[in-house]
């Protein structure tokens, strides 16, 4: 039998909203949340029975009052990354079309950032390689 991971595996789905100028929306995790102060792509945990796309639509609605259509979500890359207390598996979608104006419903700071400037923002460990992929492949 193969050994199991001693840490829980967390399935998260995230989305890079891209505006007409090619800037990417990132959010700073607010005080009181795990990894507070780190910048990340909006999104959250995939709930049982949800697809990653459904999770992104729900999370963007909850966190930003933004409505992307599911077919506007394009798979871009994924990470499988060990943190000290859990292991995260997270697909990142790209989205260029949505309804509404992003509003920080959880008190999170928002920033529209050019891909070349992503390195100026301290991102969670799992996101560093995604930011590099965006720089290289977008
Ligand atoms: N949303 C999001 N979470 C990320 C990213 N990178 C990363 O390591 N995570 C981690 O994934 C975990 C779950 O994400 P989350 O806190 O957004 O989940 P959620 O919206 O369901 O939060 P909640 O439990 O407060 O409702 C957190 O520990 C978060 O730090 C990212 O780019 N976006
Ligand atoms: Mg979240």
Q: Please give the count of helices.
A: 2
Spatial order of the strands forming the largest sheet = 4-1-7-6
CATH superfamily: Nucleoside Triphosphate Pyrophosphohydrolase
CATH architecture tag: Alpha-Beta Complex
Describe the structure in your own words:
17% of the residues lie in helices and 33% in strands. The chain is built from 2 helices and 9 strands, in the order E-E-E-E-H-E-E-E-E-E-H. The strands form 3 sheets. It has a 4-stranded mixed beta sheet, sandwiched between helices. A hairpin with a 4-residue loop joins strand 6 and strand 7. The model has no long low-confidence stretch (mean pLDDT 95). Bound molecules: 8-OXO-guanosine-5'-triphosphate and magnesium ion. Belongs to the Nudix hydrolase family. 8-oxo-dGTP binds at residues 29, 40-43.
């Amino acid at each position: 039998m193969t050994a199991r991971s001693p840490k829980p595996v967390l399935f998260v789905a995230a989305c890079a909203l891209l505006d007409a100028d090619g800037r990417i929306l990132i959010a700073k995790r607010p005080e009181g949340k795990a990894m507070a102060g780190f910048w990340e792509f909006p999104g959250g945990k995939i709930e049982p029975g949800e697809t990653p796309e459904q999770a992104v639509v729900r999370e963007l609605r909850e966190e930003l009052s933004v409505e992307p259509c599911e077919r506007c979500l394009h798979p871009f890359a994924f990470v499988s990354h060990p943190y000290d207390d859990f292991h995260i598996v997270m697909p990142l979608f790209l989205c260029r079309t949505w309804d509404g104006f992003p509003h920080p419903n959880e008190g999170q700071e928002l920033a529209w950032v050019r891909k070349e400037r992503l390195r100026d923002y301290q991102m969670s460990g799992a996101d560093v390689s995604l930011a590099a992929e965006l720089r290289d492949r977008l």
